[in-house]
User: What shape does this take?
Amino acid sequence: MKKVLAITNQKGGCGKTTTALNLSSCLASLKQRVLLVDLDPQGHASYGLGVNPKKINRSIYNTLTSLNDRRLPIENTILNIWGNLDLVPSHILLSTIEQELRDTEGAVSRLYEVLNLMSRPYDFIIIDCPPSLGFLTFNALRAAHMVIVPVETSKFSLVGIDKLMNMLELIALKLQHTPKIKGLVTAYDKRTKFSQKVLEEIKKYFKNNLLKTTIRINVTLKEAAYVGLPIDRFNKFSTGAQDYSDLSHEVLRESKKLHLEDFYKEAESMISRAKQFSRTFMFNSQTAKEVYLVGDFNNWSINESTRLTPKEKGIWERTVNLQPGRYRYKFVIDGQWMQDPQNDQIESNPFGGVDSILTVDA
Assistant: This one.
């Protein structure tokens, strides 16, 4: 089963496109079938693989557009770069797609649908996102199983990351989709105390969600992109080639963990499906107009079925039937997210917030 990886960071100069094209090439060198999707209207990933977007008439734009005279199946836009590595190039027309799809139902899931319907078998689909948190990036995050966030060791390295995490939380809430998030340290210079200091800050921020591989600062990476070659094809003995080779092996291991997690979740669900236990959740507020209970047990959905019922003296209440397991949850009070004040079992989430934790034993 293919795994979709989105490489994103709204901050420029963090190594986003460099990571997308070199990770794609190194995975292909490991006999993985890889499709790189250039979702940036500037087309830097396309240029980095020797493809000039100005000289092509079939791009990712043609797979997303709703205009019948321009729309094409994604298979008709794929270019083979070498061996196991394919590319769907970008085009400047992609910058108009948000306006074009503004009133289209399900527009934020257009890329997800396109990739799901694709007939060609790939092990990995890697999406190079634009340096912004707009419509195109939202589409990429919706389609992704894993999100890799390149973060360079500079003064403003973590600026804007919270906004990305908020977007991922919105996707989890609205679309019931929660990709795995992994930070990636780039442009690291171990010779300077400043880089070492910033590295420690990045580790504190991402905690267990930071990839072990570090991409060291290396001018050869820029030279390779300039001539339109991935680093392992330009100079396989360079520091950059070594680092991205290490990253490809680590991503391959992480993807296998995703497969196992999916398998175990399904197995646990089958075993516990017949067992359900009632749990009553209560929240005390005499001023609240609406209180909802959202969590893993209802796909974090805000609707009438997750609304608490007001009782006497400002007590809001809802009873939920739960299977054995461990659940993250929160209350939503008049649009504001809040952990359960009566539950001291809490845990940080990947979006920088805190969730309440409930364990239901069999």
The mean pLDDT is 90. The radius of gyration is 22 Å. The CA atoms of residues 281 and 318 lie 5 Å apart.
